[in-house]
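Q: ABC transporter ATP-binding protein, please. Structure only.
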Amino acid sequence: MSVIQIEDVSRWYGNVVAVNGITMTVGPGVTGLLGPNGAGKSTLIHMMGGFLEPSSGGLTLDGKPIWRNPSVYRHVGLVPERESAYDFLTGEQFIVSMAKLHGLADPGAAARRAIGRVEMEYAAGRPVGTYSKGMKQRIKMASALVHDPAVLLLDEPFNGMDPRQRLQLMDLIRQMAAEGRTILFSSHILEEVERLATHIEVIVSGRHAASGDFREIRRLMTDRPHLFALRSSDDRALAAAIIADGSARAVRLTDQGLEVETTDFARFTRLIPQLAKKAEIRLWELSPSDESLESVFSYLVGK
Ligand SMILES: Nc1ncnc2c1ncn2[C@@H]1O[C@H](COP(=O)(O)OP(=O)(O)OP(=O)(O)O)[C@@H](O)[C@H]1O
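A: Structure for ABC transporter ATP-binding protein:
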């Protein structure tokens, strides 16, 4: 059972602070690293895998420093977001070469085992350049598994996958976690993280914004004020009805219709059609107007 400890870690690129004073512990099971694009997820993952030096702070695997420590790399597999295989190599050649890089005693056998793990035997003899996005993702996964690491780091593993490929990969990740591995995967999609992760870490603008199980994070996200845009046959009357009901924090009449702020998302979406019906108003549009991930995450960090 392996544990990665991240202790007050920062990383900057020139003037850009990509990761800012993050402290967290990643243990066995599946951890989801959630954050919008540019939050610093890839930077953090690369530091966890020993591919990038922290500008300050330290990272350890089972108490051993990760940076410049090859004895640690034997226990870590990293699947990067970008393509990492030469298109002209066959899947098998690629995995065998990775096994050789790790100095494994029997690269052929290790490669076959890893390819079997991701169910890619049928395409192992084909050049990687002919693979679909999902197949490329699986062969990258095999390359990270070839030395049977205790820790697996996956950067946006579901990007570009169709729903069937997504389910297959989720199954594989669950199996590997059940075997006692420490697995961390990054994503900017809450639902994805919610379905797979037993533990969630949220980062926003390089900072650690929240940590815990998904119910807690979901509550933090849904309890924040929500902004809705409404259009109806009589916006003024609808505004009056909403104000009379007392379910909104603020109601504004705009050129486009109504803007309503509420803290109880679920109750408000149930209530509005009832209010409209009672007042004989036809509802044309009811849409959340601040549902961008950016705004959800910003709320979490209190910006
Ligand atoms: N090599 C680099 N040089 C300069 N800036 C960088 C470099 N790599 C990342 N950054 C910047 O650091 C910040 C964090 O980037 P990072 O790729 O770690 O975020 P991310 O959460 O993985 O985002 P994405 O999901 O879009 O890849 C961004 O502002 C990015 O532009």
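A: Brief note, in case it's useful. The chain has a mean pLDDT of 88.
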